[in-house]
Amino acid sequence: PACQSSQNTGNVIVTSGCSGSQKSTGGTHDIVDDIIYNVNNIIHYIVYNEADNIDNILNIVDDFLHIVDDFLNNVDNILNIVDDFLHIVDNILYDVYYQTDHIYNVDNIFNNPSTSTTSSTKPSTFTTSSTTSSIPATSSTTIASTTDIPFCDQIFLSFNRSLSSSILQDQLRAIQPFAMQCPEQLNAVVLQIASTNLQRNKTFVVEAGNISIAAGKIENGTQMHLAFDDNAASAVIPSDVADVIPIDSLAVLSIYAFNPYVTSSSTDPVQYTNLVSLSVTSANGSEVSVRNTSSSIEIGMDYNAVDGYEIECVWWDNSTRGWNREGCMTDTSSQPVKCLCSHLTSFSLQVTPKEVPPSEIAAKPFPWKWVGIGVGGFVFLLAVVIVMIAALTRRRWKRREEYDLGMQSTSHIIPADQIEVTEHLSTRIKRGRYQLADVVVVRQQSGDGLSEHLQQRVRHVNIVQYLGCYSDSVGDKYFVYNYVAGIELSKWITATEYDNDMAEHLVMQLANVMTYLIDQGVTDNIVTAEKVIIQPDNKGYVLKLWDLRSNVQRPELYVPPEKKLRTEAAQVWAFGILSMQIIDQTLYPREFYDDKEIPDSRVLYSVKQSLRKEPKARPKFADICRREAAPTSQTRAFSDQFENNYQQ
Fold first, then answer.
1. Residue 370, C-beta contacts closer than 8 angstroms, at least 6 positions apart
2. Which of 119, 350, 434, 497 is found 20 to 30 A from 233 (Cα to Cα)?
């Protein structure tokens, strides 16, 4: 009821009636009603107040169940891993049991050697004979335990010849330890492997450790060639031999990295190389005997001829149980060595040291002559090297002394207050007066390659005269030159009219001053139109070189094709470019040069030769200055040819 109120008194809720209500306090029914009413209130209190705690408990239980589920999943994964491990162990135990069975049977056979037999083959010409009588043609996975089967046949009895290449390689490796005792049985197994696999393929190759097999089907009238990827062995059956071999025959080439027929030790003088076997089988796997062929069959051996040793091709003769040379020739001219034989079987190379008779050893004189020549040549080369080292050392010390002498010489220092600046021509060049004479003042820039020692050393009529240097108040160094009243060559070419004689006169002045600079050791001054001033005089014009800086950016037009600037050939190229501009009376763009047709004369011919593409073909400045004679008809033809080549 709305008028009722509840009071919490610990764990029990006591209710009291509202004023004005009538409630009986006596009687059994009233007591029962109060009890039911209080129980109802307690249940409501627990539901409304403890619901959150119950929900948390349920969440915790749910998380715990998730953890248990993850743990069971991990246990399941562990059980799967254990199951896989047990499978691997089972396979290992099976292999151990299989190999133990092999060893057990081999031990029994060695204890009963009387059961081992050998076989021989009678020679015939192109006849078919069975070589697998002792080995069943069908595959088997167990080794015979009867003692009446020969030892070698028991070893190779279980060999499965129709497996995949990877398993086949494993089985070939497994029978290798027994191959030395059973070479005939091994050869029979190889033939059966080839014939079985060639029923599905045209060619077949397998390489397993020390045993490699290559086989193919023979086409009548077609040359048959077999070889391995590493050229360990090869075989060629000529077409005329293949033409008479039975139809659907197979050629099988096998190489063993050992020789089962050799019993000699490594200390014996006669040694044999690895065994290479070449056979022909019919379609059913029986071997075809090939003898007395019209053309030689070529067997390539992985062996090169060595001086001091005789090499002979030999083959294993089963009838005599020994090596035989008959029917084979040795080709040592090719590398590797080839055997040319008229039959098929197992082949090897017999390597024997050459014997030199004692009389030849004693009679052979000591080669004193060649020893003397060798010693004399060595002494001569040593003397040349010593002279070259001495010359280079002397030249280096001479240059160093000249440099020290130049540095120690008194510099011509001009007091700064004696220079009167009258005009600023650019950021680094000023015009002024010094001792009542017009001068040009040039500020030195860091890394421009312009030194006072160089300018004091050069003195030439076509070089602006250097007067001295001074430093201003901020520490900048200035070089002072005699003022030349003239115009820059780049402006003079386009602004002045002159004839060819005047052009040649200026070109020769430029060649003379460049020759002088080369003689002074200046090999890094690339001359451009901006470095030259043209000064008028009574006889015409005088060329003046005023800028000797080397480490400045040069226009691409003056850079030679070889891109090497610190050589005389590079300066000759720049001279040729500048001379062509003077001759053509045209200032070329900075990155363009067109080889135009110019009149033939002594000067122009020299200018043309200075623009040859090869640096060694360009003339020296001294040669240009000589102008000994005008070019002949032959030189004109050579010049025309050069023009065409350079234009291309």
1. none
2. 119
Tell me the C-alpha distance between 618 and 613, whole Å. 8
Residue of 459, 468, 506 whose CA lies nearest to 487: 506
Give me the residue spans of the domains in the chain.
Answer: 5-109, 127-353, 416-482, 488-647
CATH topology match: 127-353 vs 488-647:
no
Successive 10-residue mean pLDDT values, the chain, 648 residues: 42 41 51 76 67 73 84 86 81 59 46 39 39 36 42 62 63 70 78 79 80 87 84 87 87 85 68 86 82 90 79 88 89 85 88 70 70 91 93 79 54 85 88 91 80 82 90 87 90 88 90 90 84 87 86 80 85 90 83 55 80 86 69 45 50
Q: 257: which 2 tokens?
A: 């990295």
Give me the architecture of the 488-647 domain, per CATH. Orthogonal Bundle (1.10)
DSSP assignment of 448-500, as one string?
S---HHHHHH---TTBPPEEEEEE-TTS-EEEEEE----EEHHHHHHH----H
Those residues whose C-beta lies under 8 Å from the C-beta of residue 490, and which sit 6 or more positions away, are 529, 530, 587
CB 217, CB 248: distance < 8 Å: yes
Q: Tell me the pairing of strands 275-281 and 12-16.
A: unpaired
| DSSP H or E stretch at residue 515 | helix 500-519
Cα separation of 193 and 215, whole Å? Answer: 10
CA distance 226 to 218: 11
Query: What is the third-level CATH fold of 416-482?
Result: Phosphorylase Kinase; domain 1 (3.30.200)
Distance CA 431, CA 434 (A): 10
Under 8 Å between Cβ of 444 and 481 = no
- What the block records as the tokens of 336 is 């590797």
What pLDDT shows up at residue 388?
A: 92
Hey, what are 65's tokens?
């169940």
Residues 6+ apart with CB under 8 A from 238: 223, 293, 295, 296, 297
Q: Does the CA dihedral 283-285-290-296 come out positive or negative?
A: positive
| Beta-strand pair 429-434/297-301 | unpaired
Is the sign of the CA dihedral 314, 315, 316, 319 positive or negative?
Answer: negative
Q: Which amino acid is at 631?
A: P
Separation CA 251–CA 224 (nearest Å): 8
What single DSSP character describes residue 318?
A: T
Identity of the amino acid at 530:
E
Q: Are strands 322-324 and 233-237 parallel, antiparallel or unpaired?
A: unpaired
Q: Indicate the SS3 state at residue 296.
A: coil
Closest CA to 230 of 251, 252, 250, 205: 205
Estimate to the nearest angstrom the gap between the alpha carbon of 173 and the chain centroid: 35
CATH of domain 127-353: 2.60.220.50
- 3-state DSSP assignment of residue 9: strand
Tallying the residues shown for the chain, one arrives at: 648
The pLDDT of residue 591 is 57
Beta pairing partners, 312: 350
